[in-house]
């Protein structure tokens, strides 16, 4: 194989933080095949290069020439497969967990492995969700909201099915961050015995955390 192609294949895999085993599973080949391609010891067919280019969402020419992703495909030609790369079964996605599972053979993958261009976005979403789950203060709400906005802005550069789903998650996340912000304001008023102000805020987020209990106590104090 052309040594330039071999080097470019290795650079692409490392750039996306994929092991040879993870890439092999995604492409439906053995890790040994990946190793031999990258070592230049095994010829690679053009149709396989097309499959690899689709996986990284770049052109075949960019693999052959310099391995750069700057010559990525235009939006209208982006491809997203919702079929298992091993058995062809339907993939069931959990975008909030950043993972998917084949409904047929049960194999699981991280979405970031199947679609490397979304690895950073998914990490940002996961960070924002973790903040909402573990912290309850205004600063946390603001931080999570900004992270969701950042992820949504990055997703807006794409127009495939994965981007659409991730944008929906970002929108839901921003709504949750907004709820947390309102809850925190209400709790602040409640802790300071400003029950009228607390009630006004907490009634906007009925059912959120312990808002209902504080609402009852506020009404008793009026």
List keywords for this structure.
elongated, 3-stranded antiparallel β-sheet, 222 residues, 434 Repressor (Amino-terminal Domain), 61% helix
Can you walk through the features of this model?
There is one protein chain. The chain has helices spanning 3-15, 20-27, 31-39, 46-56, 60-65, 111-114, 119-134, 138-155, 161-191, 195-202, 211-221, and strands at residues 91-94, 99-102, 108-110. By secondary structure, it is mainly alpha-helical. The protein folds into 2 domains: 1-73, 434 Repressor (Amino-terminal Domain); 117-221, no CATH class. A 3-stranded antiparallel β-sheet has the order 1-2-3. A hairpin with a 5-residue loop joins β2 and β3 (108-110). α7 packs parallel to α9 and α8 runs antiparallel to α9. The protein is elongated and about 80 Å long. The N and C termini lie far apart (80 Å). Mean pLDDT is 83; it is low at 67-80.
């Amino acid at each position: 194989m052309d040594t330039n192609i071999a080097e470019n294949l290795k650079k692409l895999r490392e750039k996306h933080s994929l092991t040879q085993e993870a890439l092999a599973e995604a492409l439906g080949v053995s890790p040994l095949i990946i190793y031999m391609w990258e070592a230049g010891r095994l010829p690679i067919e053009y149709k396989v290069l097309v499959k690899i280019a689709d996986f990284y969402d770049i052109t075949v020419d960019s693999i052959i020439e310099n391995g750069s992703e700057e010559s990525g495909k235009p939006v209208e030609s982006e491809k997203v497969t919702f079929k298992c790369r091993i058995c062809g079964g339907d993939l069931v996605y959990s975008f909030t967990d950043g993972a998917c599972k084949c409904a047929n053979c049960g194999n699981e993958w991280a979405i970031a492995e199947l679609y490397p261009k979304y690895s950073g976005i998914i990490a940002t979403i996961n960070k924002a969700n973790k903040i909402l789950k573990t912290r309850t203060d205004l600063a946390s709400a603001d931080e999570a909201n900004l992270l969701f906005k950042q992820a949504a802005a990055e997703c807006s550069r794409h127009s495939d099915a994965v981007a659409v789903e991730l944008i929906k998650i970002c929108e839901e996340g921003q709504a949750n961050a907004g709820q947390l912000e309102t809850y925190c304001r209400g709790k602040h008023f409640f802790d300071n015995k400003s029950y009228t102000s607390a009630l006004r805020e907490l009634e906007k987020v009925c059912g959120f955390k312990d808002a209902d209990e504080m609402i009852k106590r506020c009404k008793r104090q009026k």
